[in-house]
């Protein structure tokens, strides 16, 4: 059984994110531990969006280094969970982090970008950003074929 590392990143009072010896990222609240595996598990980590991406990335890299595991935090799943939420606020937060993703991580979110682009509940600014990302992904796919 994986154990939760004591050097997790606190995201709220009594709530932290850490990584097990096996490389599984989890949210811990009190005595409860919730693994972050499927995209819909990541709502528990949305508080990360309240901080700048570079700061969060550096802190989570430290957590992984302290745990002595090579497990990058799955930012694409966190962003995907916010886009799937159909919340204008969460989508706004998530879209500000998309530029920090790798091209492959962006490709993994293409269907969600299409949904955001075509949705009326999303602000015009975020629909335009989603359109931009879909176009970039499609241009890249054509260039690589």
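Q: What amino acid sequence fits the structure above?
A:
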């Amino acid at each position: 059984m994986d154990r939760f590392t004591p050097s997790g990143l606190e995201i709220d009072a009594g709530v932290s994110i850490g990584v097990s010896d096996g490389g599984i990222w989890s949210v811990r609240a009190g005595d409860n531990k919730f693994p972050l595996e499927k995209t819909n598990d990541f709502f528990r980590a949305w508080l990360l969006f309240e901080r700048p991406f570079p700061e969060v990335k550096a802190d989570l890299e430290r957590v992984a280094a302290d745990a002595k595991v090579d497990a990058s935090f799955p930012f694409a799943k966190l962003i995907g969970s916010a886009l799937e939420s159909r919340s204008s606020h969460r989508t706004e937060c998530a879209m500000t982090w998309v530029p920090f993703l790798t091209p492959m991580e962006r490709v993994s979110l293409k269907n969600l970008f299409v949904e955001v682009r075509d949705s009326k509940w999303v602000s015009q600014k975020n629909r335009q950003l989603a359109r931009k990302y879909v176009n970039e992904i499609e241009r890249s796919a054509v260039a690589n074929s």
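Q: And what stands out in the fold?
A: The first helix runs from residue 53 to 66.
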